[in-house]
Amino acid sequence: MFEESRFTVCDPAGGTIELVAAGPSEQPVRRLAELEASLGPRARGVAFAMNAGMYDEGGRPIGLAIADGVQKHPINRRKGGGNFHLMPNGVFQVFNDGRSAVVASDQWTPSPAIRLATQSGPMLVIHGKLHPAFDADGTSRYVRNAVGVGADGRAIFVISDGPVSFGKLARFFRDDLKTPNALFLDGAVSALWDPAVGRRDLTKPLGPMIVVYKAT
What we know:
The protein is mostly beta strands and 216 residues long.
């Protein structure tokens, strides 16, 4: 509980983080049930999964997407409307050594050491400060999910159990989870698959998804 709202916090706990995202000629996975089927026997090792980044009508990423070191879509620094273009937006990335980071898109640089990356927006927390465009508790409220990274390079994923504002979600990361950088992943369609408790949310078709496997 935080400021009278409940959040589900998903800690990878040392497990492997992967991104499922479709390139231009690939068929996207659009629902969590499809994700489970596509993983085959590997699905037994899933700790949790959630949607992770903005996408077009076909379910393909509209921002940077790197999966297993292969770029599926380049970085997107264009201006526009909607949450994705509420600058600064940002990139969640995982390096080959397992460290994670959230960085503003205008600060992102390519590297062969990046194993996974997904671009979304807006940033929620930027070097310990809230996104300057947020109201304290605005009227735009949805079920939302996001990722933050602590000073130790460990990622933590969150989905709200009910509608929340950007401001409250950002404060939860900054004040409760103590992550100096955090990135909004999506809202209204936010979904979580948590096999341990039998949860697999049903939503509209999704785009890129984060999958976290149990540590062995």
